Structure to design on (822 residues):
């Protein structure tokens, strides 16, 4: 049962080492705490190995990366590999600059990721080195739709086989796939793209879920994506009821992460196996 | 009509390259999304040219600058100039240290800014190299009042002529001026100075508005300043009604940016041409 | 009277130079404004001396430190010492990596701190170089309880004598001690550990309070710790009443900091001298 995934996070309070961008770092920390994990942010090359050693998993996010932090990501990633920790990558803006694309490729070469989560454009960049990225949003031409869903699932499974990582593609429809099995998730709300950080937070939560459920990383990723979508729906209901805007939406989204229960998950999940 | 300015932002979703401080960067990102734009933050010297090339405008903010990011600001600024993109400067704390003042002057020398927005103290530093700055707030002796308004407008117009930039001075009374024409705006609420980031957010929004209204940068800046002030008033009404404090005020300010309509703008605008 | 401490902050609006981590920096800025102070963040080695000179106190927080910012902390700290400004240290994660521990020790060697605030694990690291730290939370085995309270107070007083700094240990029970006198504070709510930044914010507020009450740093620290705890209780009441979660809790905590009055302080304070 996927609800066990949530329970294991709350019971284990996994400590997640985060090397992430300075735009949404506070949201990631608060989302991790709300979800039942515990964050520690550390990005200096002289401490990342020690920090990652005392943690249960590693979260690498390449938004606002720079030469200093790329070195730290590589060093932390290799250490976490050695230790067998789950490692999760958010290739923010891969494809938007050659530096980001190269950083993503270097990470993929040198670090074995348990999960890679991005929008379809970022994941295509990961796959091919030829994607295009408009900011941090998926290109319109690259959105996952009911029409191209089967093809995209096949693409995700193939990429998972190639990278040996679980592939998570988020958008209007979310796909969570390993080389054999995929979850299709239809939760969420369009307003999630009108605040910054939903993708970053989700990837951070996956790092916590994977740490608390080491035998079931695919289920852990799927349950987390689904929960985030449900929270996006519940938060939308709250702002509609109160007549509020996008900043309240961000607040309520994290509120809901701290309030989601097994019952809310079971009632709300729109998830199927493909 | 100034309402067209708002409409053009929503319809064009301009992508704004932001090189800004780490204190209010999340607020800037969420404010841009609320306003109808889309943010991308990137400050490494190796990617800023590519990133600014895929964007519609550039926002440079010198709060928490350092030697690494100063180089990035200059490089991005020159590239955006070449491309003819609107470029907006927030000289946070210019005058507070010789490093910030010098960075501001170097930027002015090497980059042609479409708009420069600051408090009166920062703008005086820009003008003369002799201003004084207490933190990020205007000195009491330097506030714009009804008594010195005409003189300050004349100062702003002259500075605009000298810098070839639109000058925006914000405070209890706001001035938006080019070398010929100025808008005087009397919207806003004193509580806006009791949260961090209102200035930074406003400057970011101006970058989006200028990108979506390339033929009318003066109107774009004025409509944005006026909208921010109206949202500051609406947010104040909400916290008064709910008995809340300054953090809720910040949330509701961004909420209002996501909810402002042409009607609310027309009803609320306290704007005159001088 | 401790209420005078709060009054002095509001009346003096002390400008606090903050060199702090990028995770909670926005919370620190907004908390300082809510409390009645004014923040300025600056961490480049070329400007920290000038910035600290125009401020009333200095706040150093070693979360997300790096080689560049360690140099800035030392330089700013020495300058603030020379100027006789109150200087407050938050040794976030001291003990979690040798780099952080060394940075904390170097700061203690070269800078005279007015106040040092941490959880028991961080403070033990400060004391001995032999503490253990799990992320930013105190080890379970190291929590302050009614049983070990007297011993911990004695430890704090001894450490204060050794460091010549006021020692603030926060947790379920808070201790504020100099070498002779200690305040024991039993305000607060467990939910304060489910959001990031309560410790960082508290230390920043102490820097403001110490600046506005230069003759009474012990009382200033105690009144601030107590106020933060009261606000944690009031914010909890609000979210319970509204059925909200942890992100609303963060918002309401800062709201309450902007709304606390002498009356609320007097009614709510659970403080004793030991």
């Amino acid at each position: 049962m996927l609800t066990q995934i949530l329970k294991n996070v709350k019971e284990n309070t996994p400590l997640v080492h985060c090397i992430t961008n300075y735009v949404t770092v506070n949201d990631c920390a608060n989302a991790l705490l709300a979800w039942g994990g515990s964050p520690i942010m550390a990005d200096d090359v002289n401490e990342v190995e020690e920090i990652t050693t005392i943690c249960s998993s590693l979260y690498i996010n390449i938004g606002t990366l720079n030469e200093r932090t790329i070195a730290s990501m590589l060093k932390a990633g290799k250490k976490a590999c050695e230790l067998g920790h789950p490692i999760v990558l958010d290739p923010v803006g891969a494809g938007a600059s050659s530096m980001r694309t190269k950083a993503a490729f270097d990470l993929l070469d040198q670090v074995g990721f348990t999960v890679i989560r991005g929008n379809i454009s970022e994941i295509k960049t990961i796959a091919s080195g030829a994607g295009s990225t408009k900011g941090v949003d998926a290109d319109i031409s690259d959105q996952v739709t009911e029409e191209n869903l089967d093809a995209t699932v096949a693409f995700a499974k193939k990429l998972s086989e190639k990278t040996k990582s679980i592939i998570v593609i988020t958008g209007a429809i979310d796909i969570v796939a390993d080389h054999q099995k995929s979850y299709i998730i239809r939760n969420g709300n369009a307003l999630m793209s009108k605040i910054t950080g939903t993708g970053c937070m989700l990837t951070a939560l996956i790092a916590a879920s994977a740490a608390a459920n080491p035998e079931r990383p695919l289920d852990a990723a799927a349950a987390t994506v689904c929960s985030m979508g449900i929270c996006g729906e519940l938060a939308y209901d709250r702002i509609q009821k109160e007549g509020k805007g996008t900043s309240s939406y961000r607040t309520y989204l994290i509120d809901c992460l701290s309030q989601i229960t097994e019952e809310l998950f079971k009632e709300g999940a729109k998830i199927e196996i493909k």
The first helix of chain A runs from residue 3 to 12. The radius of gyration of chain A is 17 Å. Residues 20 and 49 of chain A are 16 Å apart (CA to CA). Chain A touches chain C at residues 15, 22, 25-26, 29-30, 33-34, 38-44, 46-47, 50-51, 54-55, 68, 250-259 (CB under 8 Å).
